[in-house]
Amino acid sequence: MGVANTGVVNIGVANTSVANTGVVNIGVANTSVANTSVVNIGVANTGVVNIGVANTSVANIGVVNIGVANTGVVNIGVANTSVANTGVINIGVANISVANTGVCGSITK
């Protein structure tokens, strides 16, 4: 349940693998703070179903998105939406290449 959790149905503080929630999550069903792979939600997300802050690959939503279904802020690659988009289905602000709209437009279309 709490404090320095490792393995299986973690809840709160230094969680590691399986059904993590809260603080230093690592692996599988992560929620808030320093999430890593699988179902990340909130703060330092990496890999798979990211939502919010430092997202990386797969279904990113919000802030430092990188790769696949990006939305909002520093998008890079695939289905980008607003702010600093690069590559594929860009919409709004600093778009580069493929289906750009708004502000900087395409450099190579």
Q: What keyword list fits this structure?
A:
single chain; 109 residues; little secondary structure; 2 domains; 0% helix
What is the compact description of this entry?
The chain has 109 residues and is low in regular secondary structure. It has no helices and no strands.
Q: Please tell me the overall pLDDT.
A: 77
What portion of residues is helical? under 10%
Based on CA inertia axes, which overall geometry fits? elongated
Strand content: under 5%
**What are the segments in which pLDDT stays under 50 over at least 5 consecutive residues?**
none
Main sheet properties? none
How many domains? The number is: 2
The N- and C-terminal alpha carbons lie at a distance of 53 Å
Helix and strand composition category: little secondary structure
Radius of gyration, in angstroms, nearest whole number: 16 Å
Number of helices: 0
Number of strands: 0
Question: What is the element layout, followed by pairings?
Answer:
Elements: no helix or strand
Task: Describe it.
The chain is largely without helices or strands and 109 residues long. The protein folds into two domains: 54 residues, no CATH class; 50 residues, no CATH class. Helix content is 0%, strand content 0%. The protein has no helix or strand. The protein is elongated. The model has no long low-confidence stretch (mean pLDDT 77).
